[in-house]
Write a structure and sequence with these properties.
The complex is a heterodimer of chains A (170) and B (159).
Chain A lengths: L4 H19 L1 H35 L2 H8 L4 H14 L4 H13 L4 H13 L2 H11 L1 H29 L6
Helix pairs in contact in A: 1-2, 2-5, 4-6, 5-6, 6-8, 7-8
Chain B lengths: L1 H19 L1 H35 L2 H7 L5 H14 L4 H13 L4 H13 L5 H8 L1 H26 L1
Helix pairs in contact in B: 1-2, 4-6, 4-8, 5-6, 6-8, 7-8
Classes of the chains: A mainly alpha (170), B mainly alpha (159).
Chain lengths: 170, 159
């Protein structure tokens, strides 16, 4: 029988929390308190994202995504991936199911990699925030370096895929 | 605000879909149920781990490892630190700014901020689940290397 890792890890975390609570209750409460904020974030973002993925899966024909973001979509496909990643918000784990759906519908690996990296790193409100705290020079320079980096990373991933594939991806 | 919008779009989408085709809407909901149930335990574990990390991480230690005297090693440490923790931007940027004021290397801060968003050790198991081991490994390692490159270039400009 295959043991699912999720519940096992949860049990370990619960035991660890109980152990911490026994020696230093205030630390255990802090663990739970910090986690609670993230839990609320997850509950508020993940369900609608997954509903949209479900609708996308049921309604959007494979040919459309293949044409827009497939292997032969070129710069336009990459631009769409960039745009999708920038306008969306939410934590990276919310981007995984969306990227997976795109891949399943025939988007190229290059475009999905661009999408994931852009989602993770480039958000307009986040850039404003970074400018406020770390300075415009810092934020804009980092942005100017991040965009080409993402394109190169995705290009390298495409090379890896061409050489040996990402076959065990379900 | 964003949350209200995305719930609104999802709800409106479901309604529209329901009026057009019950069958497809049911398929969409089955997709939702399946993916939510398979995601929930992993995401919960991630969230709980973050609680531990943020509670027990001493900030003085962090500052010592990424100070200007630490050199490139400090930059790498900052990149590792950014890869391991998962902090939302609205906490990370003020934190990074305070490290910078307290004498952290600007390269280290750039590396930290970049790996923080692009590399996710904690979310890696989830990424593996969706895209496979090799994909997650390559995307995260390449992002890590490029974060260091970005940091070094920024150091040259902002010194």
């Amino acid at each position: 029988m295959k043991i699912k890792p999720g519940p096992v890890i949860l049990a370990i975390l619960a035991a660890a929390t109980a152990l911490v609570y026994a020696s230093r209750p205030e630390k255990a409460l802090s663990v739970l308190f910090v986690s609670k904020d993230y839990l609320l974030e997850m509950i508020s973002i993940l369900p609608p994202i997954l509903v949209l993925c479900g609708l996308f899966d049921a309604w959007v024909p494979k040919q459309t995504i293949e044409r827009l973001m497939g292997e032969t979509s070129g710069a336009r496909g990459a631009s769409i991936a960039l745009l999708l990643g920038t306008v969306a918000m939410g934590p990276l784990y919310a981007a995984f199911p969306i990227g997976k759906s795109l891949l399943g519908k025939g988007a190229s690996l290059y475009n999905v990699a661009v999408f994931l990296c852009v989602w993770a790193s480039i958000k307009i409100p986040m850039i404003l925030f970074e400018m406020k705290f770390l300075g415009a020079q810092f934020a804009l320079l980092r942005l100017a370096l991040t965009v080409p980096s993402i394109l190169i990373i995705s290009g390298l991933m495409k090379l890896v895929e061409a050489r040996s594939g990402f076959h065990e991806a379900k | 605000m964003f949350i209200a919008v995305i719930w609104g779009i999802a709800g409106a989408g479901l309604l529209l879909s329901w009026t057009k085709s019950r069958e497809k809407t049911r398929a969409a909901l089955r997709f939702f149920r399946r993916s939510f149930l398979s995601l929930a335990p992993s995401v919960l574990a991630i969230i709980w781990s973050i609680g531990f990390i943020l509670t027990f991480l001493p900030s003085g230690l962090v500052l010592n490892t990424i100070g200007r005297e630490a050199g490139f090693q400090g930059v790498v440490m900052a990149a590792v630190f950014g890869s391991v923790v998962l902090i939302p931007a609205f906490i990370a940027f003020p934190l990074a700014a305070s490290f910078l004021r307290q004498g952290a290397d600007v390269r280290a801060i750039a590396a930290f901020v970049t790996t923080l968003v692009m590399v996710g050790v904690i979310t890696a198991p989830l990424e593996v689940k969706f895209f496979g081991k090799r994909f997650a490994l390559w995307r995260n390692s390449l992002s890590f290397v490029f974060a260091l490159v970005i940091a070094v270039v920024m150091g040259a400009f902002l010194r």
